[in-house]
């Protein structure tokens, strides 16, 4: 059975609002974040899901419960939390000013000063950007491309096992993780250059096939447009 996966990005958080790096660290949803998610939840209220899943970070868990509570056509039990679908880990940069972080990574990579992360990634390529992030991190804890690729593969394998008898599921994850997953598994991506960051509350759709193969078919869609 092919399983349709609705990947929803969590709502806006306090760290999003304050322009801080937010990977494995967490901050609460803002009022705007909750209001935006309510619109997404209403748009998906009549879509039947066999199950709903979430990253194990609180901002994602809060988001999935909003989706669950608004859905009137699905019988969803306890939400299963999947740590493999956490946000990208930024190590010592967690909680720092996001522009200062990108500038430090650009400097470490030897390309001068820059705070536009999309331009930095496109100049370096995604793999070198992740390596520069790990190198720039004073404790070298940030995930590089290999570590993140391995985590994504584990996540997809685990999801495949969990959803073998499920036709459609919803999974709440995070912006950089969803973007990186899309760069890897979307035919419209070349696997090297950056793509626009997904909006809070947006929906990215994927297909998980019988043989475990995963592909992205829609990226960063407003739920009302699906």
Question: Please, could you describe this protein's structure?
Answer:
With 226 residues, this protein is α/β, with parallel strands linked by helices. It is 40% helix and 15% strand. Strands 3-2-4-1-5-6 form a six-stranded mixed β-sheet. α2 (31-43) packs across α3, α4 (98-109) packs across α6 (126-136) and α5 crosses α6. The longest helix is centred in the last third of the chain and has 18 residues, at 145-162. It is globular and about 55 Å long.
Protein topology:
Blueprint: E1 3-9, H1 14-17, H2 31-43, E2 51-54, H3 58-70, E3 80-81, H4 98-109, H5 117-124, H6 126-136, H7 145-162, E4 168-173, H8 175-185, E5 203-208, E6 214-221
Parallel strand pairs: 1-4, 2-3, 2-4
Antiparallel strand pairs: 1-5, 5-6
Keywords:
6-stranded mixed sheet; 226 residues; alpha/beta; 40% helix
Distance between the termini: 22 Å
- Helix amount: 25-40%
Estimated radius of gyration = 17 Å
Overall 3D shape: globular
Contiguous helical run count: 8
How big a fraction of the residues is strand? 5-15%
Unreliable stretches covering 5 or more consecutive residues: none
> What is the topology, as strand order, of the major beta sheet?
3-2-4-1-5-6
Q: How many beta-strand segments?
A: 6
Structural class: alpha/beta
Mean pLDDT reading: 97
